[in-house]
Amino acid sequence: MIEHVLQTLPQVIIDGLALGAVYAIVALGYTMVYGILELINFAHGEIFMTGAFVGTALLLSFSAFGWLSSMPMLLALLLVLVATSIVTGLLGMGIERIAYRPLRNAPKLITLITAIGISFLLQDFVRFITELKKGNYILTGPSLFTGQVNISASSIWSGFHDASVKSSFFIVLVTAVVMMMTLDFFVNKTKWGMAMRAVAQDRETAALMSVNVNKVIALTFFIGSALGGATGVLFAIQYGTIDPYIGFILGLKAFTAAVLGGIGNIRGAMFGGIVLGLLEMFAAANLPIVSDGILGAEYKDVFAFSILIIVLIFKPEGLFGKVSVEKV
Amino acid sequence: MSLLRLERVHTFYGGVHALKGIDLEVCEGEIVTLIGSNGAGKSTTLKTISGQVKAKSGSIVYEGKDMTNTPPHMTALAGIAHVPEGRRIFPRLTVKENLEMGAFSVNDRKEIAERMERVFHYFPRLKERLQQKGGTMSGGEQQMLAIGRALMMKPKLLMLDEPSMGLAPIIVEQIFHIIRELNDEGMTILLVEQNAFQALQIAHRGYVIQTGEITMSGTGKELLGNEQVREAYLG
């Protein structure tokens, strides 16, 4: 049994990292908005989904015009990522402006319900447009980066089995890491990042420092949604087929990752996402073996969420959550 | 010359008629203090000036321009620094970042560094703690940081809301000393205090506020010698 767990470990780690990277970046969007408004922006999963559709639509039209073959694949991908980020970034900003800002001083529950409403709206809107154009709401993009790469883990240690990955895995991982590092730099080292942290800690006082709080909140939504949308594109490339409902479960899990890492904490969200992805893949690969076939791979979510519950029982503020020391 | 003038300002705060027609003036180079008991409307007056709370009626004129109900980030840009009650430093930003936040509207790195040196001149302690998180400092240090952060704005008018609250007498002494020093160098100051005795001692003029109304005004000396003021606030 242990032998089997070890054999599949390289593959588990690779699949877990790909999934975890997606969770991590979507989790960033939840955690940033929560940090600044104490709002759980349930529509964020749908921003991710919208990004997947916008990106796929762009890739499909690129290939319809024959551009995919005429320019380097990576350049095409970069263009699509940037364009999608801008679209979903503006979408997130627009949602904040129209739906959340008028409710800024309303009870939190009202805004939460609004966010859920926006979720449904986006799901149905994307479904409507896709069906109108394609006659079907399930969309399959052009296959990109499908080459298989063999990682000979057995040469590291003979107990491992070799792992195989689609080359898109590297695209997902590299892009995700670049996005996370850029965001981390922005938040911790730049003036507007500092303003964002200041607004998250004390909105009223930040305004007294001549910070336009509305601008900072809009910026937060733009960045979170741009990252979420770009991640949607990565997801579509890695997993091939998308539908308008992928944002719901994925969003829920990314939110879980954010809570696991300590909601409001940016590095925590990244860490929580990776951990959740790895746990999930680990469970999917090993549950059937360990339980002698009683529990199928579908129970991976039960396993992952049980871990979450256990962590939260012992550390309710999340792994990196802060019990703040504030003297008055 | 009048720097700030409030005329018949009415403010409602949380459903309460908190300010009932406040008239108040601060001239350039003055220390003006607003004294009164808890809940009299001292903080609300400052909040109405900086725009955190909206005035229902009346006017606030600053540097000859109408500033009534200007949002806080705009009053800050105009040169009014408001050090809020309870200091309200950013607890999870470092001391350096807190100070940088004060100079948020400034893009010139050199100018920011110069202002910071100026702040260290008044509060050398802050220089030793630059990388420490604001929330981990003592109450007195936090008050120094809050004032230092406001000075980073290079304001024309410095509004202080109960800077002595909850601090040890020796620290209060220091803070009042620095307020006086700042004023000697030309800073105009509007000081809200429950510690009326100390506030009136350094103030050129003072106002007494009671349940949202100005009930008395005069020079610091006059109010210090006033029988009613002595009884109510100086005990």
Automatic annotation (TrEMBL), chain A:
Keywords, comma-separated and alphabetical: Amino-acid transport, Cell inner membrane, Cell membrane, Membrane, Transmembrane, Transmembrane helix, Transport
A GO BP annotation: L-isoleucine import across plasma membrane
Family of the protein in this entry: Belongs to the binding-protein-dependent transport system permease family. LivHM subfamily.
Main localization (coarse): membrane
Residue intervals passing through the bilayer: 12-35, 47-68, 74-95, 107-126, 167-187, 216-239, 245-263, 270-290, 302-320
Name the UniProt record assigns to this protein: LIV-I protein H
A Pfam entry, by short name: BPD_transp_2
Family annotation (PANTHER family): BRANCHED-CHAIN AMINO ACID TRANSPORT SYSTEM PERMEASE PROTEIN LIVH, HIGH-AFFINITY BRANCHED-CHAIN AMINO ACID TRANSPORT SYSTEM PERMEASE PROTEIN LIVH
UniProt keyword annotation of Transmembrane present: yes
Organism of derivation: Anoxybacillus thermarum
UniProt xrefs under InterPro entries: ABC_transp_permease, BCAA_transport_permease
Subcellular location: Cell membrane
Automatic annotation (TrEMBL), chain B:
PROSITE patterns linked: ABC_TRANSPORTER_1, ABC_TRANSPORTER_2
CDD domains associated with the record: ABC_TM1139_LivF_branched
Presence of keyword Transport: yes
Domain ABC transporter per the UniProt entry, residue ranges: 4-234
Keyword field: Amino-acid transport, ATP-binding, Nucleotide-binding, Transport
Gene Ontology MF annotations: ATP binding; ATP hydrolysis activity; branched-chain amino acid transmembrane transporter activity
InterPro entries from the UniProt entry: AAA+_ATPase, ABC_branched_ATPase_LivF/BraG, ABC_transporter-like_ATP-bd, ABC_transporter-like_CS, BCAA_Transport_ATP-bd_LivF, P-loop_NTPase
Claim: NADP is one of the keywords in the record: no
One of the GO BP terms on file: L-amino acid transport
Pfam families reported in the protein's UniProt record: ABC_tran (PF00005)
Family the UniProt entry places it in: Belongs to the ABC transporter superfamily.
Name of this protein: LIV-I protein F
Source organism per UniProt: Anoxybacillus thermarum
